[in-house]
Amino acid sequence: MDMEYILENVPEYIQAQNTLDAKVAKWRKKLDDQARHIEVLKSDLANEKAILTKDLIEEKEEEISIKQVELRRLESLYFGPNGDLFLVRKQLVKPIQDQVYNAVQSIAKRKNYDFVFEKSSDLVMLYSNKKYDISELVLSTIDRTRLQEQKKEERNKKKAAPKKEVTKVQQEKIEQKEELQNKKIEAVAKKIADQEAKKKEIADKRKALMKQREEKRKLLRQKKEEARKKKEEEKKEKEKEKEKNKEDN
User: How confident is the model at residue 171 (pLDDT cuts 50, 70, 90)?
Assistant: First the structure.
């Protein structure tokens, strides 16, 4: 991958680098101004040395020496190993570099890469096929992560946003709306209850009608059974009478 290309295409890095460059330019200007001032003091001393007393010369030399010490102190403060440049770069650039490294690790794990080389490193690379360059993939991963973080931040802002104070008119409208909603709910509940009651009434009537029909059928069966038995008895009586008549003859 090409770290330089990736960083040049990360907006946060460009912004951080511009901020850093502006600070560096400001620091260098201050150092240059002080260095020029020291040179002016040296030049003035050289030009005036012939007419100055020994004490004045020593005083001016001491002043120049103090200015030089101060200049070196500022140089160390701004550009030393743990100076402002190091701290500001760490503050501004390191989070972005961490984004890149996190994206690289994510891609490497997802694609099962054993190694990911950086083109601009000291590693000598005689040839590199572009199809193995994951720079664009790293950028898209960073963009996706940035978008997710922005959405998360927006959601958090919405949650943390203070609720607007409700005016009296707004409160009345809210109450009217709630009352209307409650009436609708009550109307729907009443309608459902009426429907259920009507269903129950119909079911009860149907049950009663079925019971009446069953009783009528039962009564009819009883009458038929009684008529059948009566008919059989009459038949038996007739047969007995015939048998008796035969015996008499």
Answer: confident
